[in-house]
Specification:
Distance between the termini: 43 Å
Strand order of the largest sheet: 1-2-3-4-5-6-7-8
Number of helices: 13
Strand content: 5-15%
Radius of gyration: 18 Å
CATH class: Alpha Beta
Low-confidence stretches: none
CATH topology: TIM Barrel
Number of strands: 8
């Protein structure tokens, strides 16, 4: 049985426009309800779109607990607990488990260049520290290092490591992960929304799709069409993700996505500094994109 499957949404973390850019729990509840109603298969708190990198450990655990409570068992909630420090990654993973997380997502250590053996040791320590499934998370454009298929194969042998998310954007890398995970009870998730159909064809069990924050119906419909073997509907819906992706590339993550949600009436606030407020030019493009989807906006 898959530990990770279907459309999992790396939900944005709502912030207020107060001095501390504090987390807006009311907006968080609104977003959780929106995603559950759209039929997503899971919610992932504090991924890249969730801005884990600019939040304190206490903020991450406190809001994750809140998301778990609001999801109320309707969908699993996964929590990003990655850190450069193995000690902190273990501690955060234990705290996430205590907060009710169904699984933890752990990015490989970043900033420092570490050996493959050290990466394996990092994941072993996290997996030994918790009783819930662990998801490896590969996003080389942010970490500066690609998790090699060889490392994935080695970590896949560790008890309760149950998945790997690939946001490399490389089909060859994803295919190598599918091969490395085969027969090990490890699911492969695609983190590049433009590649969902191609990843499904390779054997991916699901997608961690940032675009589903705004257009969950499109992305959930795409996955359902793929599972049903409806190639025509899948091709149409995969193409329909494109206009949003084009706009997301115009700003620092997750500036454009949060602005689009705000204009669509989901008050998630701005990205945290150093990411700035959206420019008037970006606003214009965001509004045109919302018009394409028929989403009413302010």
């Amino acid at each position: 049985m898959s530990a990770f499957s279907g459309v999992i949404v790396p939900m944005v973390t709502p912030f207020r426009r107060d001095e501390g850019q504090t987390i807006d729990y009311e907006a968080g509840e609104q977003l959780v309800e929106r995603l559950v109603a759209a039929g997503v298969s899971g919610i992932f708190a504090f991924g890249s779109n969730g801005e884990f990198h600019v939040c304190t450990p206490d903020e991450r655990i406190g809001f994750s607990r809140f998301v778990v409570e609001r999801a109320a068992g309707r969908v699993p909630v996964y929590v990003g607990t990655g850190s450069c420090s193995t000690r902190e990654a273990v501690e955060m993973s234990k705290r996430a488990e205590d907060a009710g997380a169904s699984a933890v997502s752990v990015v490989n250590p970043y900033f420092l260049r570490v050996s493959d053996a050290e990466v394996v040791g990092h994941y072993e320590a996290v997996a030994e520290g918790v009783g819930i499934p662990v998801l490896m998370y590969n996003i080389p454009r942010c970490t500066g290092a690609n998790l090699s298929p060889e490392v994935v194969a080695r970590v896949a042998e560790v008890d309760n490591v149950r998945g790997v998310k690939d946001s490399s954007g490389s089909m060859a890398n994803l295919a190598a992960y599918v091969e490395a995970a085969r027969g090990r009870g490890v699911d492969v998730l695609v983190g590049s929304d433009g590649m969902i159909s191609a990843a499904h064809a390779l054997g991916a069990s699901g997608a961690v799709a940032g675009t589903a924050n705004l257009i969950p119906g499109v992305v959930v419909g795409l996955w359902r069409a793929l599972e049903a073997g409806d190639a025509g509907a899948a091709a149409r819906l995969q193409a329909e993700v494109g206009p949003l992706r084009d706009v997301l590339h115009m700003g620092s993550v997750p500036q454009a996505l949060k602005r689009a949600l705000e204009l669509a009436g989901v008050p998630v606030g701005p990205a945290r500094r150093p990411v700035a407020e959206a420019s008037p030019g970006l606003d214009e493009r965001v509004r045109a994109m919302l018009d394409h989807y028929g989403i009413a906006h302010g």
